[in-house]
Design goal:
Helix content: 10-25%
Largest sheet: 10 strands, mixed
Distance between the termini: 21 Å
Amino acid sequence: MSSSAPQETGRQRLWSVDEHLADVLAAIRPLEPIELQLLDAQGCVLVEDVTVPVALPPFDNSSMDGYAVRVADVQGASEEFPAVLTVIGDVAAGSGELPTVGPGQSARIMTGAPLPPGAEAVVPVEWTDGGTGGGAASGMTPASAAPEGAAGEVRVHRAAEARAHVRARGSDVRAGDLALAAGTVLGPPQIALLAAIGRGTVRVRPRPRVVVLSTGSELVQPGEPLAAGTIYDSNSFALAAAARDAGAIAYRVGAVSDDADTLRATIEDQLIRADLLVTTGGVSVGAYDVVKEALTSVGGSGVSGGSGGSGGSGEEDVQGGGVDFRKLAMQPGKPQGFGSIGPDHTPLLALPGNPVSSYVSFELFVRPAIRALMGLPDVNRPSVRAELKADKALGSPAGRRQFLRGKYDAGSGTVSPVGGSGSHLIAALAHADSLMVVPEDVTSVEPGAELEVILLG
């Protein structure tokens, strides 16, 4: 959706959603690559091409528990006229020295074990009598319980073609092949492949460390009793969980009271473990909105603002030591703050305190910042076009891009509103899986109209 033209509200400039996001992303640089152990690299972005040093599998091996045989020895075998072969030993997974299978011979072989010299195929144990002299076997007797099973005779009831039940060397990947390309996000299958080709470490961009602080003297830790005029702190939990969902390592800081000195000290203490700081609350125009006050001096000379994007002058934006506090042409989430603080110029995004405003702001601005720190090319949630399914038209304020909670039905290509537009309606947010986007120049959306829908799941 194209950005709207800049608007003025009194002396303060009204930023569009796209302008603010562009300003945030322009100031974000991907984290420097580091070498990590495989499990520590889960969720990280690979910064180098990884080639295969050895073929997978590295040798011909059996895909079944059964008997390694020569094709000619079992040709024409049937239950009425089985092929009777001499069993010369066992070949287990991890076997070093292998017996050579000659004419009229076979070797018991286990899944994953190397195909012994002379053998051309594997017959599953179910195609044999298992060396018992009876009918079809259902399995093998454990070697420890019946070592004699590795000798004697076995009756094979079915013929086998060459290479039957044999996994060929290099059938998965060959030496020199590209295993994983730079830019790959390492999930469990990718880590499995790295381990399989012998890589113990890998060079990646690390997962960003995101510190989440909520502000407000009215906030109480969940599990504690509520006093008069207090509420439970949900924002810090929601945003820490959202940061993890985005791929970050999240640190949640307990609610900070409405005291600028306390908040300033808390932020300064957290800088040592933060690649990104996120605050929630205290960014509006109230007498107790202390985030603005606290950020006028935190970090001292190390404070620096955002890139400014196509932003206005310092007189138009209410600034706090280089952290710009802005009004955006959006609902919910009009008040926002962005800049960088401390000697390392750690990015900071200050979000509004209403729960829905806070979460919507995270999805629109913080999640992309986290993904950019990870070095991912696609930083935004996927979006689709869907038909509005509602009993009545949805209203939207003129000049504001509105984000309404929705339930998306992929089968019918429709989206339905969940709850109202209030920025405090947490229950409705918990039942939504998408955000319906109403453009700035639209004040009413009729049922059946098509909308952009941001998918949250």
